[in-house]
Amino acid sequence: MRDMANSLRSRIGALLNLRGRSGRRDAAESSGGNAQYGSGRSDAAMNAAVEIAVESWRFGRFFEKIAAKLEGTERERCMKQLLSFNKKIENSLDVLELRMVNIEGTPFDPGIAATPLNIEDFKADDELVVDRMIEPIIMGKDGLIRVGRVTLRKTER
Asked: What global pTM score does this model have?
């Protein structure tokens, strides 16, 4: 698992390097010619960063489940590693002016920026809450970048 975390860190580092060089011709070529010279970003690099963010979310959730099965200092060490990994991902996304949003536990509203995967399991008058984020909502400085995916449950009364 440590190798997977290091691989994700390497990919994010490569994207940040690409972003830093985007005003030069080699960056435009490496991003398929989509570089926006004035803004310092390419669509390809931004899409890749969003995909890495979503995959890091999934990886973090999986790693957390595995670590929960461990005991004592091994569990604590794994959770500290996950916290460090998540912080590095968050810092890298900050550089790109992106952030992941988790809305678990919030009341469901049909206008939220997430697709409920199990909405058909409920009646129209059920009070619902977001039970689990399957994929995070990705926000940029100018608003929504990617809609999240969630599962719902009835509100406990």
From this structure: 0.70
